[in-house]
Design a protein that fits this description.
By secondary structure, this protein is an alpha/beta fold. It has two domains: 226 residues, Rossmann fold; 55 residues, Arc Repressor Mutant, subunit A (Orthogonal Bundle). It contains nine helices and eleven strands. The strands form two sheets. A nine-stranded mixed sheet has the order 3-2-4-5-1-6-7-8-9, with helices on both faces. The protein has a two-stranded antiparallel ribbon with strand order 10-11. Helix 4 runs parallel beside helix 5, helix 7 packs across helix 8 and helix 8 packs across helix 9. The longest helix has 18 residues. It is globular, with a radius of gyration of 25 Å.
Length: 335
Amino acid sequence: MKPALDKHPSGGVLSLGQLLEHHPAQTPALIDPGLLPSSGILFVGGEPKVGKSLLVANLALALASGSSRTGFTIPQARRVLICQFELPTSQFAARLAPMRKPIGSAADSNLLIDTEAAGHLLSAPRGLDHFLRAVRAANADVVVLDPLYSTHDQDENDTRAMAALCQTLLRLRDVSHAALIIVHHIRKSVGRYEIGSAFRGSSALHAVGDSYLLLVRPSPQVPTVELRFQFRYAPAQEPRLLTLDADTLWFVPSHSATPSPQPRRKVETADVERALAASGSVRFNQLRQQIMDQSECSRRTAQLAIQRACREGSIVHKNGQYCLPFTSSPRVAPR
């Protein structure tokens, strides 16, 4: 039998006993339940103007003041550095002013803003150095990047480019020893059950994110958003509703019941036939949209239903249009 490892090894190889001795317990989350792990990465996304930046500013103030707000628990106050790229400093200050009123001066010394963040790119070495210096100067426990696309010049549809950006995010986290809250936009077409995969560049982002928070507006007429969660380590959470207080710009838990998820809708061949019977001969995009509206399904589900109906012979494809078998061939308009 080979000799046991030294009690105080000089290399990076540890026995199980040594590993547990050096890391006896998991560090508590910064935002509970499990939304932001210590030294973790939280992605926050949603469609434009849904309130992503407002919610993230709420979370930053709650962290800095140590107050449990917006329906989340903050175990203790943390130093937070905000790097935001969308508003001039004066306008961002005007946004924070009404949020400060409910908490008073509790966050004043712990919430810091990088007023020179604009123009610095994480994808460039000098840009990364700027953010690392800012984090050290702020002695920050949490760093907010809002939005991600303003921190780089990479193609977000290029998996390799996004993978390189994600490695930079990991370096920022590891060198600074700070948790990251990253505001990012989502793809144009997102299914009801998509959360982490809804973010652009998601195949790369899935490798680095610890938590994903998706904001969805159930109705454009009311200032209420639904939060959907996906966690890598924490237990799953049910969706919850928040309502925006227009005076304080704080999101507060809504008294409305969270809508129950609807079961996935399978589109049958009869649904495709019904859509064509109502419209006659149509092109693919029109037919797909009619099926989506009629059956409340995703674009992918409608597309698969059309393909299946064609294979079964329930509908036919002629001259670039779809019709029922007993419908006369569609006329092609002269060019």
